[in-house]
Every structure is written in structure tokens, then in C-alpha cells.
Amino acid sequence: MPDGWSRPLDAERLADGRTDIDFAIPLRELSRLSPQLARGEGMARGRASFVRERTLAVVDLAVDASVPLTCQRCLQPMEWPVASRARVAIVNDATAADRVAPEFETVIAPGGRISVGELVEEELLLALPIIALHPEGEACGAQAVDESDGKTQKPFAELAALLKRSP
Predict the structure, then answer these.
(1) By the 8 A CB rule, do 91 and 116 touch?
(2) The predicted structure's pLDDT at residue 156
(3) How many angstroms separate the CA atoms of 149 and 13, rounded?
(4) Helices within 3-81 (DSSP H only)
(5) Helix (H) or strand (E) holding 142
(6) Could you tell me if 27 and 33 are in contact, meaning their C-beta atoms sit under 8 angstroms apart?
(7) What is the mean pLDDT of each run of 10 residues along the chain (167 residues)?
(8) What does the pLDDT read at residue 85?
(9) How far apart, in whole angstroms, are the C-alpha atoms of residue 19 and residue 41?
């Protein structure tokens, strides 16, 4: 299934057949994720296992990826590791979504059709930080710049003197 991850599939039929789908999706192919990427490379790999639980089509989704983001402190590329596991109930409408047990994430798929790519993209977006920063202890370009000159930057230090000179 080379590009099968992008085709909408019948979740009910897959759940009844207890189907497992292994995937490898180029991150740049995920339209909502790609604008956030620092580079157009990287893959999301994993497995979507469809099962039937409590009359619902459920996907046990495992996603592993290293997402290239831009550190908002130093504006240099960084890798954000994602190792996500989720249990997703697929329902047809909002009324059915209200009845899903809280241990499941819920996805509304009109007609019961959804692509593996949509599930993976949603999981990756949920796993990304609100503001991408290098983790503590990891080299960040902004820290290297601050330490190199030894001076603390105070951009408004002269503001008080300028305001006193106003005509």
C-alpha cells in the first residue's frame, strides 16, 4: 500500500476485519503539518490497528517521527521527537461523539470514511509544542550568542534619557 495512507477507507469494514495498516508517511505530504516544518524532510512511521470495541470502530494508533521544527529562541532547526500512542474512536457525527467513553479520543468521519494520513496528522499536531524551543541542556544557538560577547543586552536602557530630552 504505497500511498494507501492518503485514501479514505471504510473504518467500519476495517474494524470488522481487525485490519492492521503499517505506514511510512513523508511529513511534507501532510498539508496541515507541512507549514510548521523547518525542512521538508522526515517520515512518520507506525501502525494503525482497527478493532471493534463497544460497537465502535476503534483505531489503536502508534506514530513515531522526528519532526524538524524551528526553535523560536535561536531560529535554528531542531528535531522534535514524537512517540505517540492513541486509541481513537471513529464516529459519523457529533451526536455519536458525545456518547464515546472518555478513554478514547474521538474523530468524526462522515460516512465512516477516514484516511490513515488524517489520523497520523492529527496525532502529530497534538504532539507538537505550542512554542518550539530546544530542550533544557541541549545546545541552543541563542545561548551560544549570549555567552560569546559576555554582555547583557538592554535595548531600552537609554529610553529614560531620551524621554527626558523631549521638547
Answers:
(1) no
(2) 80
(3) 63
(4) 11-16
(5) helix 141-149
(6) yes
(7) 75 94 94 92 95 92 96 92 95 89 91 92 95 83 55 76 73
(8) 96
(9) 29
Per this entry, what is the length of the chain?
167
What angle is formed at CA 29 by the lines to CA 115 and CA 113, rounded to 5 degrees? 10
Question: What pLDDT is stored for residue 1 in this prediction?
Answer: 37
Scanning the structure block, which residue is given the C-alpha cell 478493532? 51
SS3 state at 128: coil
DSSP codes, 32-45:
TTGGG-SSS--EEE
- Taking the C-alpha atoms of residue 133 and residue 74, their distance in angstroms, rounded to an integer, is 8
HSE of 54, CA atoms in CB hemisphere, 13 A: 13
Amino acid at 163: L
Query: What would the grid cell of residue 49 be?
Result: 490497528
Judging by beta carbons within 10 Å of its beta carbon (0-12, 13-18, 19+), is residue 36 exposed, middle or buried? middle
Q: Which of 157, 134, 154, 155 is nearest to 144 (CA)?
A: 134
Query: What's the confidence (pLDDT) of residue 145?
Result: 46
Which three cell numbers, joined as nine digits, stand for 132? Answer: 518550539
